[in-house]
Amino acid sequence: MLIIGLTGGIGSGKSTVTKLFSSYGAPIIDADTIARQVTAPGQPALREICALFGEEIVDDSGQLKRKQLRKIIFSNQQKRVQLEAILHPLIQQRMLEQAAMASHRAAYAILSIPLLLESGWQHLLDRILVIDVNERSQLQRTMQRDNIDKKTAQTIIDTQINRQDRLLAADDIIDNEGRIDELQQQVQQLHQKYQQLRHHH
Question: Domains along the chain?
Fold first, then answer.
């Protein structure tokens, strides 16, 4: 089975693209979803996070306060590295397990990993698929979707790898500046390509 890592900056349209791939029957394995699963109440990782950030990082019902956690690691590099050391191995293991479970019914799986390049997850993947948009589109889409101001949106974009480096790391690129039918066409072509590659793999 071919393991495709899908990534792109904030506001590039990752969820739209994964929906299109899943309409072709490709299993989509999402890092953010799995991150939520491994940090659910009662999960061992949550106890480790509490030990690291203090009990006040969970609310009264035992749920992780994600917004607060994001704020802390946004401003504290050391805490971010410590958090990643807890979560990343768990998330990677689960993603690969889920891909393996789908391998009998699909030629390839899409692992959707927003910070793939920033986190150095390239070694898990056969190919890297980057969804590319220009920064102006990124800003506009992020401001609209998350209802945030320009400065906040720009700050998030600045913490991510820059567009050039992302494109350099790509095996495949989807250009998401155009209309939805142009996007669909690109996904269809890649779907066919990945099915063929799988047979040479």
Answer: 2-27+105-200 (3.40.50.300), 33-90 (no CATH)
**120 by DSSP, 3-state: which?**
coil
Could you tell me the two tokens for 89? 């191995």
d(CA 54, CA 113): 28
What's the pLDDT tens digit per position in 54-79?
999 999 999 999 999 988 988 898 99
Would you give the distance in Å from CA 184 to the centre of its chain? 20
pLDDT level of residue 199 (50, 70, 90 thresholds): confident
The mean pLDDT value of the chain amounts to: 94
First to last CA, the chain: 8
Which pTM does this prediction carry? 0.92
Percentages (nearest 5) of helix, strand, coil residues in the chain? 60, 15, 25
Instruction: Calculate the dihedral angle through the C-alpha atoms of 12, 189, 179, 168, rounding to the nearest 10 degrees.
Output: 40
